[in-house]
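Figure caption, in words: inputs first, then the predicted bound structure.
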Amino acid sequence: MTKIIVAATNKGGDGKTKTSILLAEYLTIIKKKRVLAIDLDPQCNFSHKFLDMEIDPVESQGKMPPIHPSYTEEKKINPEWNGRSSIADIFYGESVLPYSTHLNLLDIAPGYAMKLLEAEAVRKSEVRNKVHHQLHLFISDPTLQEAYDIVLIDTAPSKGPLTVSAVKAASHIVIPSQMEQNSIHGIYGMLQLWKQEALQRDKSYPLELIGILPNKIRDVNLHKDLLNELRQAEFIGDYVMEDKLKLRSIYAEFDAEESNSDSIFNLSDKNVAREEAMKVCDFIYKKVFPND
Ligand SMILES: Nc1ncnc2c1ncn2[C@@H]1O[C@H](COP(=O)(O)OP(=O)(O)OP(=O)(O)O)[C@@H](O)[C@H]1O
Ligand SMILES: [Mg+2]
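Bound structure (adenosine-5'-triphosphate present):
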């Protein structure tokens, strides 16, 4: 069965997208897995790393996917289609046509700001059927299961309907967190969401927490102390990952627009940032594929 990894925290800027990007590159470049990236965040940062997203003229600052390369062909079968395909279409009962990327084994179902925001705002009485279960249905499709080894889902900094939908679809969750007080509060919120969902799950389809990934760690007492406290905290401590990502400008540089097709995994294997990212990804990989 296809593994489904979700990066989630309800605090902004903690590294959900960074983790998703690193995993997308690691799994395809290093592990040669077939990966589908899904961007459920209306900010569309994950999409932007792998696709030239466009500004939506209808939603100021909102991003939308570019015209799909197979638009001309597809239009013959489906003349109604406007040529853009995003993961948000699953909330409108429409099909999704993933885009290929510069990485051979990586496809992406990008975000679409306006449509994701609309889905996030669905009325409470309808949210279960229209949003919560849609992603699981989409990923359970046998054609999709056949086409990909792994689905990676990046989420918005919220515990709203879209994140719930991702958690319900997931087989594995990773929670990146900075060692700052607000971020640590956020971890508890996500753990609650994980526990609630895990308890409801059928035994044949468990939801595993990969761990809490300490991110943007600096060599200062505040970070060391908070990390030590977290490692010792009841319940939470066991989930804190041994490896961490330090705050390194090279990580941010690789996320910048102009570095679209660069990957940290193409650097020399002596590079410290690459080595650090590799350790984190190796750990996650072992959790997801314990028998490989
Ligand atoms: N370890 C790191 N070192 C340096 N910069 C980092 C690191 N991790 C993330 N960043 C940068 O910090 C910013 C926020 O990270 P990222 O986008 O991954 O967070 P996020 O949780 O996805 O945020 P949001 O909640 O807004 O979606 C980005 O510009 C990213 O490049
Ligand atoms: Mg993000």
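The pocket of adenosine-5'-triphosphate (ligand 1) is lined by residues 12-18, 41, 43, 45, 157, 215-216, 245, 247-248, 251-252, 255 (CB under 6 Å).
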